[in-house]
Amino acid sequence: MLKLRSGRTLYYGKGDVLTYRTYAKPLSVTAIPESAYIGDSNVIFSHNITFAVSSEQLLTSFTEGDNSLVVATDSMKNFILRHTADYEGSTTEGLLSFISTKFMDRYPHIDAVELSADRIPFQTLEVASPSGVGLEQSPLVYRRSHNDHASASMKLNRKDGAPVVDTHECSITDLQLIKVSGSSFYGFVRDEYTTLPESFDRPLFIFLDIYWKYDQFGDAADADQGRYVPAEQIRDITHNVFHEMKSPSIQFLIYQVGLRILTRFPQLLEIRFESNNRTWETIVDNTEADPAGVYTEPRPPFGFQGFTMTQEDLITDGE
Ligand SMILES: O=c1[nH]c(=O)c2[nH]c(=O)[nH]c2[nH]1
Asked: Do 256 and 292 share a domain, yes or no?
């Protein structure tokens, strides 16, 4: 949240600025064992952007109705759209820092900007090859995806007058993963409040949001440094670890995912998880002889977990 020196919250801005940029610079990233993802053509580089500004000098716009320093939020929207066209890089983080730095350069009375973007994912589609043999990716037609998506957020302020990225966070949200067998939950506190039976093989459905921060923001903004961490590889590590392990709880599962992510990406300072337990409710249980089961959606209320990890966790875990 953007605040003045006095501690008073003050900001205004525009949300849901939809920017469908075509033919941005292609992204290429280093391969990791858990993922086939090595980049994006960025033929469609589209985002839903939220942009807010703050300044000591905007106080009178609230207290006296003085609009003399108010950049209309409609103009902000135009600024974002026009400069999305000028962006020469290939990452969401780079786009946000480019637009916000330009804005602070253009309007020197703005002290701080807070902005975020959800990437709007479009997936490639296969079409019959003109040669008549096999399929190939269409370079023209894409499918809008409503699955998990990447996001980034950051706050800029001024240092010696120049805009600098003060804090940032990248994420993948709305991951929804089911493992049909190989998860348990037992050994928890049993007392007069306990009704949950122990489970030795539950169909574990989790909703997961994962957030990360770089040690050096430049690695996120400029993929040419070769240390960009794509949300797609974070996603693929997550389902690999889920696949590999017999989890005794969601708590331990996300810790193991975090260890793997921090191992793969030493350029990350911190990783944070927010998970939600949506374990399917069992209607017809499976047996050793017959693996078929029938399950239904769990009823609220839902359990959740939150956990933050840093590179220190790799040292203490002895990996
Ligand atoms: O993985 C889990 N962790 C819990 O803390 C918990 N609590 C609960 O009721 N089910 C589960 N599952």
From this structure: yes
